[in-house]
Amino acid sequence: MAITLRAMSDALGGQLHASAQVGMAAVIQGIAPLATAQRGEISFLSHIKYASQLQQTQASCVILLESAREYLPQHAACIVSPQPYLYFARLTQWWRAQTSTPVPPGIHPSAVIHPEATVHPQASIGPLCTLGARASIGAHTRLVARVSVGDGCILGARCIVHPGVVIGADGFGFAPREDKSWEKIEQLGAVRIGDDVEIGANTCIDRGALDDTVIEDGVKLDNLVQIGHNVRIGKHSALAGNAGVAGSATIGAYCTVGGGAVILGHLTIADHVHISASSTVTRSISEPGLHTGIFPIDKNDDWEKNAVTLRQLSKLRDRIRELEKRLPASS
Amino acid sequence: MAITLRAMSDALGGQLHASAQVGMAAVIQGIAPLATAQRGEISFLSHIKYASQLQQTQASCVILLESAREYLPQHAACIVSPQPYLYFARLTQWWRAQTSTPVPPGIHPSAVIHPEATVHPQASIGPLCTLGARASIGAHTRLVARVSVGDGCILGARCIVHPGVVIGADGFGFAPREDKSWEKIEQLGAVRIGDDVEIGANTCIDRGALDDTVIEDGVKLDNLVQIGHNVRIGKHSALAGNAGVAGSATIGAYCTVGGGAVILGHLTIADHVHISASSTVTRSISEPGLHTGIFPIDKNDDWEKNAVTLRQLSKLRDRIRELEKRLPASS
Amino acid sequence: MAITLRAMSDALGGQLHASAQVGMAAVIQGIAPLATAQRGEISFLSHIKYASQLQQTQASCVILLESAREYLPQHAACIVSPQPYLYFARLTQWWRAQTSTPVPPGIHPSAVIHPEATVHPQASIGPLCTLGARASIGAHTRLVARVSVGDGCILGARCIVHPGVVIGADGFGFAPREDKSWEKIEQLGAVRIGDDVEIGANTCIDRGALDDTVIEDGVKLDNLVQIGHNVRIGKHSALAGNAGVAGSATIGAYCTVGGGAVILGHLTIADHVHISASSTVTRSISEPGLHTGIFPIDKNDDWEKNAVTLRQLSKLRDRIRELEKRLPASS
User: Fold this and answer.
1) What's the CA gap between A200 and A210, in Å, rounded?
2) Which residues of chain B neighbour C32 with C-beta distances below 8 Å?
3) CA dihedral of residues B308, B309, B310, B316 (deg, nearest 10)
4) Nearest residue of A to residue B96, measured between CA atoms
5) What H or E segment, with its residue span, contains residue B12?
6) How many CB atoms lie within 10 A of CB C20?
7) Which residues of chain A make contact with C115, given a CB cutoff of 8 A?
8) Cα separation, A49 vs A31, whole angstroms
9) Which of A143, B62, B196, C143 has its CA at a distance of 20 to 30 angstroms from the CA of residue B47?
10) Per-residue confidence at A2, pLDDT binned at 50, 70, 90?
11) Residues of chain B predicted below pLDDT 50
């Protein structure tokens, strides 16, 4: 089938401006980044600050802000949108719908489903998944492949769960015995996941010890993320790859957590808090905004000198104090 | 079935003290944290320092220390134990035994078992597991689902292995060739795991290069933990989520390693060492106790100022020395 | 079958020097590290600096440099090689070929293969793998077990992919909507993996958003590594366990990345760059060599004092400046 610029803007809106070389009936072959787009492809400019990149593009059409139009090469058509990046996201969805067969609902015969599990008829359970007793999968939710959902764990509607995900393994709970070996605390809670949640490959969400672990609507988890027992993540928060959230931490809504970041247990993170990649959150955060704790990387020799000195930092402070005492304030 | 306080204390011990409102025959509906427990539920107070939380609880019964009894609201019954948290752990186990059907031993028909693997008749191999040649699974050990155990790897008795775990993949061993490409070192060792070990979802334990990788009795590994080849972890040590132990490191007994911590290769960690979350162990540790290395998190602007200065730290030290030289010691 | 020293050196080269006690026809039972090798075993000495370890060894034969021969105990035979560690690597491969049946090519009946996937007749697809539409697996490549390869993703020849690996899950791409919820960006690219790549257990390589994610020939990825969408990793680079590379980062050839390290998105790392374990790369690196950023670990009390002071570091610098102003330079 031919995807024309006109069909695109009819479906997605925006103001389509044809060029002398690219008419509204022009057929678009693909979507590509500005730098590598070829003739016959559509691209996008997300921010006006990147407008200089327009000059070199070979794209036949660019999605952009009205204010960016003046930088567009003459050969190219454009679609003007107040939010080009959001328009691009919707274009990728429309594009996929035009070019691929949707995954049909149903349960793959290789999946192992407990007879007491509940799967909505519009859900899709891919190959080699396992669902435990009383697990429940909502409408239009898709477990891609090799996903395990434990007993009593619930997923809402329109979730996407990538391969290798484990929902509802036991939380890490043990009480020390007299001899310092460990007594298991049975994890009697479950996991409750809202609607429109996406969970990346090999991510783990543990069941609660007594109450449930809760992932609210619209949360996005990247790959290899660890969510401990009784964690609660507020709606529309997003956690990047390798991040870890320890038990009973509460993350607010609209937060972002960078890759490899660690949030310790029992902390509370307010709404709209952003944690930089690799940072470790050791206390609750009530102030919205970006929070960071990363050791700056350096050439190894330079790092070594600074790291050695860092071990003496509190002594250096004492030496500065001493110098200040001995040198009276200038007046 | 009805679970009464009397049945509970008959099974688990402790001194049960009924109250005017809650008799020994009172039926308990569930276990809950102090803060959210409702009438008909049992809770616990682990430390006397949290005794003030007792005042507000709606729990019908609380497991507590003798010294905490005076803070208990009149309406509530209690069970006195010298170790309330350990009592609670055992209660969760007894509770599960009363309310759930135990997982029966046997091999799920979807599991792929090498004909030369050995599975104890009292072990449970869940759906979609794979066992390699000469793999051996001990009595009452449970592979929950989607667990892979490689050739020659051995698990003892009463282990619990959560979904997605990989035991006995090849260790990461390569020798550089003349042209700086890599020659694979075949990993000829295996993995030996003791009794009462629990392994969290998607955790990986690599086989040894020549000797075996060894996990001793009672070790607990959380989710997404990486154990390199020829690592040895001493009995009853516990490693939290996303932790990584590089090849040939030896961790003693009764250690704990926090989430996201990294232990470099070929190091030796003594017994009873505790590593804080996110810390990186770059040298052997012989002294028991808590060891930490975390960059403190801060508002991003404050972090940036301090991080920039950190790159000049050894120069700052030199400037302090210079000042000290120029300002003779006060006497 | 009997493996003799003569058979070994016939197959692998090097100069074999028998001893009075160990002749060329001596049978070797196993390979072991110098420290634990017993009579009848072969070992290796990788560097002359470890030559003192030779004195105590019980090994019947040691692979070593010519210059190390003088330290060898009289009882032992030796094989002289200019690169003993590389010789040892090749020995492990030859040893495995002598002692094990090779994994036969073919597709395990429990694997779920899309009818439009392509598997080379000399490839081996292990149990419980899934291959999507137009996935392609090259000659002599082995998916060990429970590996998922998504639609359109391509692996070259002679790759080894360990259990739990996910290739071609969706990259983590979302555009913010007006209400700060997330609009999914369909991931329309795929993953292209070259020849001789090894991928560790539970590692994830995401498909590209528009272009492909690319892993070049000879790359080695350890366990639990996260590779974001549109990342490119140059030939013969090696990434250790729990490392994470965020979207659109480019890593050069012949790089190494230590365990738990994080490389932020859209950065460029030159060829021959080495990143220490646990370090976070926050800017592009053009200079080859070792780069590090780790907070030094310490006893917790000492760490706490230094960490508190670190939060005031830029103020300490200001106080040093002030002192310098007040104390004129000595001349």
Assistant:
1) 26
2) 210-211
3) 150
4) A186
5) helix B5-12
6) 8
7) none
8) 21
9) B196
10) confident
11) 331
Q: Which residue has the tokens 């050439």?
A: A299
Complete edge-to-edge strand list for the sheet that includes strand C238-239: A298-299, C289-292, C273-275, C256-257, C238-239, C220-221, C198-199, C160-161, C142-143, C124-125, C106-107
CA–CA separation, A159 and A142 (whole Å): 6
Confidence of residue C330 (pLDDT cuts 50, 70, 90): low
**pLDDT of C331:** 47
The pTM (predicted TM-score) of the whole model is 0.97
| Residue in chain A nearest C224 by alpha carbon | A224
Instruction: Please give the structure tokens belonging to residue B46.
Output: 């682990």
Integer Cα distance of B220 and A172 in angstroms? 8
Tell me the average pLDDT across A269-278: 98
**pLDDT at site A327:** 82
Per the residue annotation, which of C114, C120, C162, C229 is the catalytic one?
C229
pLDDT single digits (tens) A12-48: 999 999 999 999 999 999 999 999 999 999 999 999 9
Q: How many residues does chain C have?
A: 331
Q: State the Cα–Cα distance between residues A82 and A138, nearest whole angstrom.
A: 34
Which residues, 6 or more positions from A268, have their beta carbon under 8 angstroms from its beta carbon?
Answer: A249, A250, A252, A284, A285, A286
Sequence-distant (6+) residues with CB within 8 A of B161 are B141, B142, B143, B144, B147, B155, B167, B198, B199
